[in-house]
Amino acid sequence: MVRSFEYPKKQHNTVKRYNDRGTYELGPIHTVVNNSLVVHVSFAPNPDDAFPAILPMIGVMASYDHPSSSIDEPLDCYLHGYVSSRLMRLARDSEKGLPVCIAATKVDGLVLSLTPNSHSYNYRSAVLQGYARPVEDVKEKVWAMEQITNKVVPSRCQNSRWGPDNVEMTSTMILKVNIETGSGKIRHGEPHDEAKDLDREDVTSSTWTGVVPVYETFGDPVAATTNKVKEVPAYISSYVKEATTSNQEQALEAIKE
C-alpha cells in the first residue's frame, strides 16, 4: 500500500464550499504550483496597512535537504526576487520567518451550462501557508536558483552561462518558505444542470451545453536579435512540444467525470 502524505486540516486551510472537491494530498497540490508559470504570494506589509500585498512570482516546490524527494513528499517552496524588494526586506527582518500565502491555479476548461448560475470552470487550484526566510547558505542558494531557472525550461541552467557571478548573487535573493499547511481544490467533468432545466424542452433545444477545453500553448521559439545559434536546441523544442501536448491532454481528461 502506497502511503499518501497530506497537509493537516486547520481553520485557515479547510475547504468549506464544495468540500468534496477539496484535497490535502501533497502530490496534487505541489504539482499545481510547479506547473504554474506564476504563483501569487500574499503577505502583510505592516500592521498599519489596511490591505495585504500580493506579488506575482516564480516559485518551485523542492527540497535541498532531500533532493530526491518526489512531488508527493514534504517540500519547501523557493521564491526568487530582487534583494531590496519589500517582501525580501520583511522576510530578512523577521526572526520567525514572514508569514505568507502562496496561490496557484490552472484552468482546464470553460463549463457552459443551461443557466448562467450553473456555469463553472474545470480547474486545479492550490493554496499554501508557511513562513518565508532568506536562504543564507551559498550552496543552497545556487541550488535553488538552478531549480527556479529550470522550472522556466528544463535543463536551461546547464545550457546557459552558469553559475551566477558575484553581482547576480548579491542582487538576487531566494526565499525558502517552510510550508505549515495547504489545500487544493479540483473541479472536473461536464455541466451539472438541475432537473428543472433539463426537463424544459424550450431550454435544452436552444442552449448549447458542454466544455471548452483550456490549456496553455507554447508557440514556436523566436530567436533574439543578438542570437548566434542557428538551430533551436532540442531541449527547448522538445519541451515546447511536450508541454503543449501534455496541457491539451490534461484539459481533455478533465472533461471526464
Automatic annotation (TrEMBL):
Lineage: superkingdom: Eukaryota
Biased composition (Basic and acidic residues): 187-202
Matching SUPFAM superfamilies: FMN-binding split barrel
Pfam families: Pyridox_ox_2
Region Disordered, annotated ranges: 183-202
Protein name listed in UniProt: Flavin-nucleotide-binding protein
Species whose genome carries this gene: Knufia obscura
